[in-house]
Write a structure and sequence with these properties.
Beta Polymerase, domain 2; oxidoreductase activity, acting on NAD(P)H; alpha+beta; three-stranded antiparallel sheet; Cytochrome-c3 Hydrogenase, chain B; NADH dehydrogenase subunit CD (Ubiquinone); five-stranded mixed sheet; disordered N terminus; 15 strands
Length: 545
């Protein structure tokens, strides 16, 4: 609950180096929080990054109160994400402006553009403060309290004139539009590319083509029943159960709900099946991107996805939009007969090693693929951290960061498995990480099946005793995240004492990965750019929300 604590209280070790800049402290459910001046953002964040080691700006949340605007920087350590701090920056309603965090954390540039676009907060010294999800000609800020939803958005040509200005990097470069409707952009992603001959001089990703107001819809839904169906739709690549878990973890911690161990095992098993579902799609479509044509690898990927989808359909009743998790557990127990269900899973797992060998023979051993992916799309570890990259994209650059191990939830800390990393930091390494993660997911699923087979029948509790209507205490705030197939999916929730959130913020991992594309593509060739986009495994529904 957000409440002021006087500076005479014990100072948290993370706060001590910036104590002179702290106006007050608050208690968020996940981390201590400090309130600072809007003109000291860069000073405070630089100190926290350099002296305290908070090198991961996981998320930036903007919101409006009756008397002020507020920006919250959710900071963590890559080495230990349980070491986290929320930095709260209030600004007056009359002039909502503060320093930009982008000079300290480059990833904050896109987050702050979103805050400006939707809420209306401006950031001084921002490198490129303009709208990011909505067109530049949009009138007003949709998440502000005084936004007029009935105003027309039809504008004259004068409003569009500056959008047609020549913004080339240099006089000798050529502008190339790639997307938004192009198979190699993996969704409605538009790239403004500047070419110097056949090399990429700069890339400006243009997102927002599938913005669906997911945060606003969640703010209108009830905690208990109406929000859970939405997370499946953020990533339709198959990671739906993992997305549901992100919301469940945040809401359960917010409402102090303890999930039974039996339900945690089911969640863990289902989540790893979802991870395989997503990785199979990533590998299959990457074969199309890089090797070309309707390859055997693509058909194998679809074949193996079908097997996983059959298992998940038996478990959840759905093949993609699962809506299986419930606050406090899962919707129902395993299908009957249980023995047949377990046998179906084991049959898939028994065939998987042979199939993965085929994937490696066809892809990672393929000379054409190696030529196109080794040493292309290079992303150094420090650059990955600077842009908030997580998941396979970060781990392929040697960033040993996985929330399943580093900030444990579910049943992961009771099982034997390993975090997969590669050192190459290139397109090839990202492919290797996903294929190797499928092996680790198989290990986790096998152990879960063993546990579920032997679980005493009278102790198979699938849900905690959750009230029909949840109303967390007013001004309770939390940021929680899980490790989805693409990386850290975080949810910030602020309650106002009602059964719907006052603020619901979604931190999608692919949002940061698309932002980092400009760093990865510079100096490479157009075919390299195609291979790099595919290696990110981007789902634009998760980027735009």
């Amino acid at each position: 609950m957000a409440q002021t604590v006087h500076r005479t209280d014990d100072v948290h070790p993370l706060i001590e180096p910036i104590a002179d800049h702290v106006l007050s402290t608050e208690r968020h459910e996940n981390a201590p929080a400090v309130v600072i001046r809007a003109d000291e953002v860069q000073t405070v964040l630089s100190t926290l990054k350099e002296n305290v080691g908070l090198d991961h700006c996981a998320c930036v949340t903007a919101q409006e109160y009756a008397d002020r605007f507020e920006t919250i920087y959710h900071l963590r350590r890559y080495a230990d994400p349980t070491q986290e701090l929320s930095v709260v920056v209030p600004t007056p309603r009359e002039s909502p402006s503060s320093e930009s965090a982008a000079p300290v954390y480059p990833t904050a540039a896109w987050h702050e553009r979103e805050a400006y676009d939707l809420v209306g907060i401006e950031y001084a010294d921002h490198p490129d403060l303009r709208r990011i999800l909505l067109p530049e000609t949009w009138q007003g800020h949709p998440l502000s309290r005084d936004y007029n939803q009935d105003q027309p958005q039809v504008v004259s040509f004068r409003e569009h004139e500056r959008l047609l200005e020549d913004r080339r990097e240099g006089p000798e470069t050529m502008h190339l539009n790639m997307g938004p409707h192009h198979p190699s952009t993996h969704g409605v992603l538009h790239l403004n590319a500047q070419l110097d001959g056949e090399q990429v001089a700069a890339v400006d990703p243009d997102i927002g083509y599938i913005h669906r107001c997911e945060e606003q819809m969640c703010q209108q839904g009830t905690y208990r029943h109406q929000i859970m169906p939405y997370p499946d739709r953020w990533d339709w690549g198959g990671a739906g159960l993992l997305n549901e878990w992100a919301y469940a973890r945040a809401a359960e911690d917010l409402a102090d709900i303890e999930v039974p161990a039996y339900a945690q095992v089911i969640r863990t098993m289902g989540g790893e099946l979802s991870r395989i579902l997503s990785h199979m799609l990533a590998v299959a479509t990457y074969a199309l991107d890089v090797v070309g044509e309707f390859t055997a690898t693509f058909q194998w990927g679809v074949r193996d996805r079908e097997l996983v989808q059959d298992i998940l359909e038996d478990l959840t009743g759905q093949r993609l939009m699962f809506n299986y998790l419930r606050l406090g557990g899962v919707a129902w127990d395993l299908p009957e007969p249980r023995e047949a269900f377990f046998e179906k899973i084991r049959a898939f797992l028994d065939d998987l090693p042979h199939k993965l060998t085929e994937y490696h023979d066809m892809l990672t051993s393929n000379e054409i693929l190696q030529v196109r992916t080794v040493d292309t799309g290079h992303l150094p570890a420090e650059t990955a951290k600077a842009y908030g990259c997580t998941g396979p994209v970060a781990r392929a650059s040697g960033v040993d960061y996985d929330l399943r191990r580093d900030d444990p939830y579910g049943y992961y800390d009771e099982l034997d498995w390993s975090v997969v990393t590669e050192r190459g930091g290139d397109n090839f390494s990202r492919l290797l990480v996903r294929l190797r993660e499928v092996e680790e997911s198989a290990k986790i699923i096998s152990q879960c099946v063993d546990l579920l087979e032997d679980w005493p029948e009278d102790d198979r509790e699938i849900q905690a005793n959750v009230p029909r209507t949840l109303r967390p205490d007013p001004d309770t705030e939390i940021y929680r995240a899980v490790e989805t197939a693409k990386g850290e999916l975080g949810i910030y929730i602020r309650s106002d004492g009602t059964e719907t959130p006052a603020r619901f913020k979604i931190r999608g991992p692919s949002f940061s990965h698309v932002q980092a594309l400009s760093e990865m593509a510079r100096g490479e060739y157009i075919p390299d750019l195609v291979a790099t986009i595919g290696s990110l495994d981007t789902i634009m529904g998760e980027v735009d929300r």
